[in-house]
Amino acid sequence: IAATQPSTNWHLKENAREHHTSKFSSEELVVRRGQAFTITFNGAERPEQNLIFIAETGPKPSKSTRTLATFDISSTVSKEGWSAVLQSSSSNSVSISISSPHNAVIGRYRLSVQSGSSSPASLGTFVLLFNPWASGDDVFMPNKAECEEYVLEEFGIIFAGNKNHISGFGWNFGQFQGDILNICLAILDRSLYYRQDPITDVSHRHDPKYLGRVLSAMVNANDDQGVVLGNWSGKYEGGKNPSSWTGSGEILQSWKKSGYKPVKYGQCWVFAAVLTTVLRCLGIPTRTITNFSSAHDADGNLRVDEYYDADGNHLEKGADSVWNFHVWNESWFTRNDLGPSYSGWQILDATPQEQSGGIYQCGPASRHAIKEGEVDLDYDVTFVFAEVNADSMYWNLDSATGKKTLIFSKSTEIGASISTKAVGRDDRVDVTSDYKYEEGSAKERDIFKKARKKLGLEDKFDPTAPKVEEVEQKPDISGKFKVAGSLEVGKDLNLLLVLENLQSDAKTVNVNMTAWSTLYTRRRVNQIWKDSISVTLAPKEEKQFPIKIKYPEYQQQLTTDKTIQVTALCHVEGGMQVLVKRNITLDNPGIDIQVLGEAKVNKEVVVEVAFTNPIDAEVKDCVLQVEGSDLLQGILELRIPPLKASETSSTKFKLIPSEAGPKHLLVNFSCDKFADIKTFKMVNVIN
């Protein structure tokens, strides 16, 4: 054989169809482990002359690290290792069916063949991935519709906003586009784990929990020059505003093109979306999860402390915080390290919040372990448990004396409306009950106590808090903010402060109110408005106080997250303070997409996008960004002339779809007054 280099037919089409890899746009064979694929090569003498195949991966392949396999032709598929079964042979070519084990290391393999005593001849390379369709694989997912959604679907919906007002936006994961597979393999070879010990790292790449943890570290730039650099400052000079991205492809391509320099900038949903792309690409079923009122418990006491001054301003003190929402990932695989009941969905989080094992990585944390309060199990269960279960404590801090007074504590605030996209539909599914027992139920409190006990946080109330009697003092009044009217950027914000006297004697209340623009993490950016009133409430009386914040008052101060926090700190004469607060997320105006005519494979179709300026002023610097896997290559950017008040712009462009089926077109519109107005449209492409 060695005399002539054999030429290999990889049967790309047939193998890809069998292995659910047809969507990769690669000239190289991409197959899944634990399943046979067929190749034909010529230049072989009669195959009965003992052909030996060699499959190897990584820098120093060896049998002991399971990165090297040698196998000859056998009559049956091996249960344990690699095997080759003869399909057919003629005088000058031979067809072989090659199978890899269910627990093979994934990655790019070099395949060669040896005949008799001659030296091995290279047949070429192929890429081996996880196989959720094969029952022996750690990532096996019995439900085929879920495999389609969580491995093969390139479009997703990420939920955001806040728990009173959930919104969703589209994302193009694009795991099969262009060079993404090669970039995903490059990410593995740039991790700290690989740099420290490449041989051991590659030998662990059969294990989805190992790869999930490594990739949760590599998708953020901390520690390892990973893919995305986080920025939660509200200022995004020198990079792209995190809310302007519409897909992972542009981010992963930029990372590679720049010579692997971190891409600026990301926030939680960007990290989660990029991790989804990488894991789906490698064959691990993965989805994004949004947790509303998500706790970041920095000190691990399952409590989140928030501080306010006497005017009701939220103070940046302590490392704990509560985010309007936070997005992480769930990936599906077995946990042979923990036992069968902990298998299934595992939480991975690539947003750099806290270090784990000395670097910014998080998970895999078994979702079942979180629900059962098993905070001592690997990995990072305590942190994720707190994100959905921590108790919130609200304190008044006197900056002059440093005295803290507890205003109130709440155990049902954190971890609401945990959401993900439905399988096969563009709808929201609530998965809160998979993370915890019903709020307020005895079982939920028992699990919380169990978790505290495991962490050595004794059952009694925290000793740094005031005496228990003081904590249980009942407030004299209650309050809430109600929204009156629409919550839209460009419109005035109308609220009602509702105060109720709970006692049977009159109460005088001094109320200090503030409104701040914030990031979605509730970090304050600009003060928008403040006011104070003094009111007298008759016994059991409820009063409403209208508040109006005009668009010109908040327009300059608003962040691109479009979030405002209003607080009213009520000082009741002779009683305890009452804190009333509300986080408000404003909606952008809408944008409309129409597909003019039928979308057919390889035929031009025209799309029209319309936007109406809803405000009384001109908007300028208008840019439209369009992307969609299988609908257009890369990203289309269109500049749009300025729009006068109430004027509508209509922009037309052409698509040439490359594949049939339901595809999604994503549109992002920005101008000087509105940032990142997003929408998507399902386009059914026919042959």
Automatic annotation (TrEMBL):
Q: Which reaction is the catalytic activity of this chain?
A: L-glutaminyl-[protein] + L-lysyl-[protein] = [protein]-L-lysyl-N(6)-5-L-glutamyl-[protein] + NH4(+)
Active site per the UniProt annotation: 268, 326, 349
Enzyme Commission number = 2.3.2.13
Annotated residues that bind Ca(2+) are located at 389, 391, 439, 444
Per its Swiss-Prot or TrEMBL entry, what cofactor is needed?
Ca(2+)
Q: Which keywords fit this entry according to its UniProt record?
A: Acyltransferase, Calcium, Metal-binding, Transferase
Q: Which InterPro entries does the annotation name?
A: Ig-like_fold (IPR013783), Ig_E-set (IPR014756), Papain-like_cys_pep_sf (IPR038765), Transglutaminase (IPR050779), Transglutaminase-like (IPR002931), Transglutaminase-like_sf (IPR036985), Transglutaminase_animal (IPR023608), Transglutaminase_AS (IPR013808)
**What family does this chain come from, according to its entry?**
Belongs to the transglutaminase superfamily. Transglutaminase family.
PANTHER family named among the record's database cross-references = PROTEIN-GLUTAMINE GAMMA-GLUTAMYLTRANSFERASE, PROTEIN-GLUTAMINE GAMMA-GLUTAMYLTRANSFERASE E
What is its EC class?
A: transferase
Protein's recorded name: protein-glutamine gamma-glutamyltransferase
What is the UniProt remark on how the cofactor binds and its stoichiometry?
Binds 1 Ca(2+) ion per subunit.
Gene name linked to the record: Tgm3
Task: Please give one Gene Ontology molecular function term for this protein.
Answer: protein-glutamine gamma-glutamyltransferase activity
Q: Does the keyword DNA-binding apply?
A: no
Residue intervals of the Transglutaminase-like domain? 260-352
